[in-house]
Amino acid sequence: MTETKLFPPAGDKAALEAGDVLTPRFGPDGTIACVTVDADSGQVLMVAYMNAESLALTIETGEGWYWSRSRGELWHKGATSGNVQKVVELLTDCDQDALVLRVRVDGAGATCHTGQVSCFYRRAPLGQKAADGPVRLEHVGGERRFDPAEVYGHRH
Amino acid sequence: MTETKLFPPAGDKAALEAGDVLTPRFGPDGTIACVTVDADSGQVLMVAYMNAESLALTIETGEGWYWSRSRGELWHKGATSGNVQKVVELLTDCDQDALVLRVRVDGAGATCHTGQVSCFYRRAPLGQKAADGPVRLEHVGGERRFDPAEVYGHRH
Hints:
The structure is a homodimer. The first copy, chain A, is built from three helices and eight strands. By secondary structure, chain A is an alpha+beta fold. Chain A has a domain at 13-114: Phosphoribosyl-AMP cyclohydrolase (Ubiquitin-like (UB roll)), CATH 3.10.20. Chain A has helices at residues 13-18, 52-61, 148-152; strands at residues 32-38, 44-50, 65-68, 73-76, 85-92, 98-105, 122-124, 138-139. β7 of chain A pairs antiparallel with β5 (85-92) of chain B, so a sheet runs across the interface.
């Protein structure tokens, strides 16, 4: 585990909101939500989670590192697929319980494990009432940038 | 509580990822993460959480509704400040455990309770090593759009 000296304990509300020290508030599972966006287009690419170690590695290396909650392991995004994230800017929110990572994506330029540029490739229409039943999604993601079977084999 | 007939139980991995039915995977606390972005500039405005009721209200009314985890209550964003969110587009991610809301903000056009346009008004510089100690944040949010003391009184 990387030392977490980098992140002092959170202060009071005023320090959290107006202070100039990064004191991320990791949740009960030790992670903080991170929104990763394309630095050029602004498109939201993914929402993932970082623990202290992955956040420290992201800051130190300038590449996107996360904590995979499903696999329970440190995750260097793009290590398998080549779609490594080069970080342009890291932002924290007012109460320091969420991060934004602005990145440029290497390789095929895809972030989603399905081969899509963004994980957010489906739109839910608005205006539907609760009694109307299921909401039908529309695919808005365009063409895949890679074939997951080729890149990941049978793991996905 | 609004009926949740709107959201059937999640199917298997294939249905979640490639299906055309919105089956949001609310977490153990009944909420799902939502990234709210400015529909025009793409700027990330906030990260908040929705329960089934607030998501149903967002879809039905086309305005941003959330579940305030800190206050434990349904939250019509902008009801007090006038900075109501008009939803342009709602997206779900591959495994349906995160949402993106593309909005236009009414009123002063500010989303953060501090008066900033976005909750993400501070940048953490990159390149620092874990042993180097605290990360100093830079303010990148510009001028406040409103004075929280005037808008919220002493509640914030």
